[in-house]
Design brief:
The complex is a heterodimer of chains A (about 120) and B (about 110). In chain A, about 0% of the residues lie in helices and about 50% in strands. Chain A has strands at about 5, 10-15, 20-25, 30-40, 45-50, 55-60, 65-75, 75-80, 90-95, 105, 110-115. In chain A, the strands form 2 sheets. In chain A, strands 2, 4, 5, 6, 9, 10 and 11 form a 7-stranded mixed sheet that branches. Chain B is an all-beta fold and about 110 residues long. Chain B has strands at about 5, 10-15, 20-25, 30-40, 45-50, 55-60, 60-65, 70-75, 85-95, 100, 105-110. Classes of the chains: A mainly beta (about 120), B mainly beta (about 110). The interface of A and B includes residues 104 and 109 of A.
Chain lengths: ~120, ~110
Amino acid sequence: GAVVSQHPSWVICKSGTSVKIECRSLDFQATTMFWYRQFPKQSLMLMATSNEGSKATYEQGVEKDKFLINHASLTLSTLTVTSAHPEDSSFYICSARDDTGDTEAFFGQGTRLTVV
Amino acid sequence: KQEVTQIPAALSVPEGENLVLNCSFTDSAIYNLQWFRQDPGKGLTSLLLIQSSQREQTSGRLNASLDKSSGRSTLYIAASQPGDSATYLCAVLMDSNYQLIWGAGTKLIIKP
């Protein structure tokens, strides 16, 4: 199957700093990528839909100025958590849909963010 | 609004048993349904994808069925092994906006 690479797999940062998470589709093009967040023992929650070349669409309750999404190419989307706080500590997962495929979603490995 | 429910929330069974995980959804206008596996602290692994026109898919010891009209899917695991211990999530892809709607998952523990 197709591969989505997410980097870094884990990161610890100080409160007030910004963290960038990358999501790359390695062997396919993805016009659309999705960013999810998962709190412990809860299901995944969609944060935003990232569209190549245009502004991301954020879900209700997600601060777009805090979670900056850039989808500058058909193989790369980035999520930047700005001015991170301890409550932003979570597991972030991206997924990408192959433009030529049957809409199966391919997922990155996830990034565990800990803000101290 | 689509809602996806997974029952049970947790399941613990002895090794070797066959088991069934359930997933139900309220809106039958889905494009497809996927079953995923998530190991603690890790990302997701896609297990099976069933298109809305299909009734089942099989991969190894796993078999997933889909009854779109009744809004139900089951994941059957044969001859369970300790390595099958994980959280299993189902998600439906909506026909209207191609977004995935997730269930809360079933945490499965296979006891040696």
